[in-house]
Amino acid sequence: MNFQNRRQPINAAGLWTMALFFGLRGVCSSAIAATAAPERPNIVIVFCDDMGYADIGPFGATAYSTPNLDRMAAEGRKFTDFHSATAVCSASRVALLTGCYPERVSVLGALRPQSRHGISKDELTLAELCKQQGYATAIFGKWHLGDYKRFLPLQHGFDEYYGLPYSNDMWPRGHRGEELPPGASRKKQYPPLRMFDGNKVVDEEVTAEDQTQLTKSYTRRAVDFIDRHHDEPFLLYVPHSMMHVPLFVSQEFEGKSGAGLYGDAVTEIDWSVGEILAAIKRHGIDEQTLVIFTSDNGPWLNFGDHAGSAGPLREGKGTMFEGGYRVPCIMRFPGQIPAGTQCDELCVTIDLLPTVARLIGAELPSQRPIDGLDIWPLMAGQAEAQSPHDVFYCYYDGALHAVRDRQWKLHVPHPYRTLGGRPAGHGGYPADYEQARTDTELYDLKSDPGETNNVAAEHPEIVARLTSAAEAARADLGDALTGRKGAGVREPGRMPAKPDANAKR
Predict the structure, then answer these.
(1) How far apart (Å, rounded) are the C-alpha atoms in residues 141 and 126?
(2) By Cβ atoms counted within 10 A, which residue in 317, 381, 423, 502 is the most buried?
(3) Going by C-beta distance under 8 Å and a sequence separation of 6 or more, which residues neighbour residue 219?
(4) 177-196: b or e for each residue (b if 16 or more CB lie within 10 Å)?
(5) What secondary structure letter does DSSP report for 260?
(6) Backbone dihedral region of 393: left (phi > 0), alpha (psi from -120 to 50 degrees) or beta?
(7) Are strands 493-494 and 117-118 parallel, antiparallel or unpaired?
(8) Residue 217: exposed, middle, or buried by beta-carbon count in 10 A (0-12, 13-18, 19+)?
(9) How many other C-beta atoms lie within 10 A of the C-beta of residue 438?
(10) Which pLDDT does position 33 carry in this prediction?
(11) For the chain, which domains are there?
């Protein structure tokens, strides 16, 4: 039987039969073995922006408290080797929603306002997958996959949308929201920042004061959505604008953390998670709801005290060293995910779509294959479960930087940005990066997650194996560094060509 292609939702008995069929046994919690999974669980994804690996209590933060995330980890499972698909905004978001490498669906980097390409209507999104199974769907927060109507959330499976269409720094203001002189370059680069409700612009010019309310307004919308849809299956996606610079918090949280504005903003995000969990509990749907908390990429390090921490990991956002794309991740699903446990296996945001498909009995696309793999055995704490990824390709903006497996990571020669040990910025203003370059370098991520000890010379057979995998990646997805075009790359969504003003009519 092909369970992946079943058209009908898989019921609880069916899931248990599948587990027996495939020999899945020895789960980490006796409660899981005794409790059948709900047929159509609710799915909640909280997706922070630029939050570093070590920015919350369960992953090592000590300068401020995150009690709601601490509780979520105590009641759920912490993933220490969880990754965003890449280390920049738009690309990481399209990967989460489509289950594909960004290079496959041709959405790279960070799309600018009025970009003439965006997410394609031909790609199946997580929201569309859930809609097929009768789910209510909503996104409250940052979209960043195109701001023309054809690219907006309501055209890609979401019933409701409220939020910014791209990053909160894409506006004609300074780094802290200050007014700039008429000739400033940012005034020429960016139009006023807009707020959308559905397909309509409801605020033509978001101000710095408006930004202080972003986390609260997204949270209120999320809670209201749960209140209205608690008696039916729902997908709730909350991609917060924070911790992206410029940082803003509401008056209630200003100075609350005792650790500066960054700590205040994390504290408000923690409050938001608490409000969402409380709404789920209030409606008695804890055991019907999977909640996932993670980030789109690592910290924007050159902003210094307005950036987060990658902890023991090397570099940050904008690189494919571990600090750039390894992110904090907690998953909570009472009765299904073992409480107070930890998973150290390789997982990626592209894995969420196929895993949700399994849980809700949905069909994956057959004509447009995806790259993500089902990680439910890891989420459920099944004994001896391992990452389903033989290799993972570490691309940044169309360039292959590295290839890794469950233990080893091979960097191919590539340029990267770094502070190089120099001081970072202060008060919301960045320091300049410098450019550096890697050689062919191999790291044992199990013993050296900080990528400090190049062991390529000691393991030529592993270098050869991962070099072969890098060639397979280039053949399939291309590589900007070597000028390769990938056979498996698909077109993004595009706006019609602009009429040529000089063409004859």
Answers:
(1) 16
(2) 317
(3) 140, 238, 271, 272, 275, 276
(4) beeeeeeeeeeeebeebbbb
(5) H
(6) beta
(7) antiparallel
(8) middle
(9) 18
(10) 37
(11) 39-379 (3.40.720.10), 392-477 (3.30.1120.10)
Helices 352-360, 89-98: crossing angle, 10 deg rounding: 30
Dihedral pair phi/psi, residue 346, rounded to 5°: -65, 120
Q: Distance between alpha carbon 280 and the CA centroid of its chain, in Å?
A: 22
- Whether residue 12 contacts residue 287, with contact meaning beta carbons closer than 8 Å, is answered with no
What count of other Cβ atoms lies within 10 Å of the Cβ of residue 318? 22
Residue 290 forms beta bridges with which residues?
43
Residues in the chain predicted with pLDDT less than 70, given as ranges, are: 1-35, 499-505
Check: CB of residue 76 under 8 Å from CB of residue 84: no
Cα separation, 439 vs 451, in Å, equals: 13
What pLDDT, on the 0 to 100 scale, is given for residue 500? 53
pLDDT of residue 35: 61
With vertex at residue 38, the alpha carbon angle to CA 35 and CA 40, rounded to the nearest 5 degrees, is 165
Which residues carry out catalysis? 89, 144
Residue indicated by tokens 């509780």: 71
Amino acid at 375: I
Q: Please tell me whether the overall predicted TM-score, pTM, comes out greater than 0.90 for this model.
A: yes
Q: Which two tokens stand for residue 492?
A: 């993004």
Burial category of 113 from C-beta neighbours within 10 Å (exposed 0-12, middle 13-18, buried 19 and up): middle
Looking at this protein, which amino acid is placed at residue 196?
A: F
The strand pairing partners of 292, in sequence order, are 45, 331
